[in-house]
Amino acid sequence: MLHKFIFDGTRIVLDVHSGAVHEVDELAWEILEKYEQVTEAELIEGTRGRYDPVEVGETLEEIKELEQSGLLFSPDPYRGQYSPRKEIVTKALCLHLAHSCNLGCRYCFAGQGRFGGDEQLMLLETGRAAIDFLIERSAGRKHLEIDFFGGEPLLNFEVLKELVYYGAQRAGERDKVFKFTVTTNALILNRKISQFLNEHDISVVLSLDGRQEVHDRMRPFPGGAGSYEIVSDRIKSFVDSRQNEDYIIRGTYTRHNLDFCNDVLHMADLGFKHLSVEPVVAPEEAPYAIRREDLPMIFSQYEELTRELLRRREAGEPLDFYHFNIDLEGGPCLQKRLTGCGAGHEYLAVAPNGDLYPCHQFVGRSEYLMGNVFNGRVRPDLVDAFRRAHIYNKEGCAGCWAKFYCSGGCHANAEAANGSIYKPHELGCSLARKRLECALYLKLQESRQNYK
Which of 164, 187, 192, 222 could form an S-S bond across to 104 if both were Cys, CB 3.0 to 4.6 Å? Predict the structure, then answer.
């Protein structure tokens, strides 16, 4: 399977099953279009009078050599061969420290942080039980992850702090290593909290939507006042405290700011260099929801962002944009390439009362309640359903050129759009494919610059 596309005059060919990426000229592009449908003689005849016959012959030989080397028209090595691992190993938990929030974000999928219930903070004993649960289900895996989430998790900072200490203690007892991450709106990210996060090497995801008018429109305080000035100042102070490393600024674009490239560049001009701006997750009827007719505008924004990242790299001001990060040499392990995030089996979310769900976007939905950390039991039917939600079982994925990079997309988005984790969200698929094309082009251009 090949995927061919043109970006700013550069012809790019991805051999899907080997992962090889080729930049080709117009002649190779034309030959590859018909290579498997017609004979070599017909290919040569079809170029007569337009290309030098010698050049045509040389191009055909190069294509045949790449094919024989498994770098063009390579077969799918996993289709019909892959099955999920029999052993269930959980490697990460998302701990909902607070079902409460100090912002009133208009697009919040969690209902202002309460996930359809009452305001609640996780007790220390619940967090400790969750850590013990993860250790017991991690089998021989050494490196484990804990994400502190909400609502706003820093509203429960004292419990967060004690859980980091407890995790370090239990890791030492069981020969494990914990990596902690916290996602925060930064409103109460003061010097004391920043110092703790820095001292314990806790990765941080900071929420900022870009330009002030964009951020304030969708991320106001509960009373309606804008939060941009306080949030941007707190984020700036925190990023400075750790020398501009080990963080991500995570924004959301909606139908109200389809020109989101300007928001990415606004944050870059504030001095932030690790950025992610993602499409809103919203019901179709929401006025801010992304619609299919918005795709041309969104695609043009990703293209413009790609060009700007190249310009800034050439100027010695590189930016790290999360969705354009791609590893053409190694990349993620096979399991992750075929199954994605591992929600529902490798990765689980824990509500403040200890209830378990497949991921943070399913929390509070009774049909996806999987168990509880205090009894240690997890519903085997749901675990099995999520384990089997890989690209060879998801509708349309096996024939998609982007399958090894998007891994079938987000289960929660698929379920929200189609009522099934086995039918991907097509709008999300379109966005993922466009981002991947931009990432491939960017990687080729960066390789060319490095070669010079």
Answer: 222
